[in-house]
């Protein structure tokens, strides 16, 4: 039970440590936070039942104020009330302590319970609220001496003492809360970093497993099939074996692409992400495929490819036609192909699709041609059934062409 209460206190202390919205009278662990303070308050009220020779009218007022503070803390809809109203609860209890002190007498010793609102506010409220409560406590201590006509020196001494004690407790508690908050933030950062490292370690392990085992086994199987095909007379069987070899080669390329994706760190912005962002504004959404280590291209090649792709997709976006984009890193170059059309089977485009296709074919793609020419890159534009194909190849290390104004 002790550990739960301690956890609840720490949780409540962090609610308003940074001055943001929140309420110490809401959230998990509310009963655990309130219980120690409530027990001391109830014991102080019960002590008035002991023979003291004082009137009980003040005791009734103290009890009423205590009940009001408790009801306000538990029943008011704090999420819909101004944040400054939260300080009214400890201030109300401070008033109940004044009534309690006047009822029991300044020499009864029960007035020490005025530390309850001070400690509560220091733990769960903001700094300015602690200042208000400290001022209220000093006022209570001075007023409680009125019935005994204490000398001015005694009143001044008590005011200085309680102001100093309240300031000391408040400053220490708020400083502790701030250190707890910073410690929690550092702990969250460390846990987040640990999760990231764990994910990266798993990605590296999977990539190594694919590279060292899976790819090698598929490659070995392909070599065996090639050997079997060379020993098989030409015919359907040999054709099927060669087709299987081609499929295995494509599978190996796909796995290598996946390995490159796994080895790329999440914080790195790869070429795939840049191209995806460029295509995000197209409607309908294009089909994008990558092959080879596209994320391993140099910065200049990547920038040239992305800029030319953005220019080439301008007419596609204007005519609102479907597009297929293929990006392939091959040896010392990177090839980009855009096939655009109405997105329907040949001959079934319909009048609207035919009109869009003719409009697309009417585009000269001058901007992408000019950008490519500035970098010594040839851009090929040719008609295909129900569409158009735009293709170019960028050598690695290609200079970046200046943007056209």
Structure at a glance:
With 405 residues, the protein is an alpha+beta fold.
Rounded mean pLDDT score: 76
Spatial strand sequence of the major β-sheet = 1-2-3-5-4
Main beta-sheet annotation: 5 strands, mixed
| Percentage of β-strand residues | 5-15%
Q: How far apart are the first and last residues' alpha carbons, in Å? A: 71 Å
Count of DSSP H/I helices: 12
* Number of β-strand runs: 5
Low-confidence stretches: 1-21, 344-352
**Helicity, as a percent range:** 55-70%
Shape: elongated
Instruction: List the helices and strands in order.
Output: HHHHHHHHHEHEEHHEE
Radius of gyration: 39 Å
The secondary-structure class comes to alpha+beta
List keywords for this structure.
single chain; 405 residues; alpha+beta; five-stranded mixed beta sheet; 12 helices; elongated; disordered N terminus
Could you explain the architecture of this structure?
Helices cover 61% and strands 9% of the residues. Residues 1-21 and 344-352 have low confidence and may be disordered. By secondary structure, the protein is of the alpha+beta class. It has a 5-stranded mixed β-sheet with strand order 1-2-3-5-4. The protein has helices spanning 2-13, 30-46, 57-75, 88-104, 115-124, 127-143, 152-230, 236-263, 271-278, 299-319, 350-361, 366-374, and strands at 287-291, 322-330, 333-341, 379-384, 387-395.
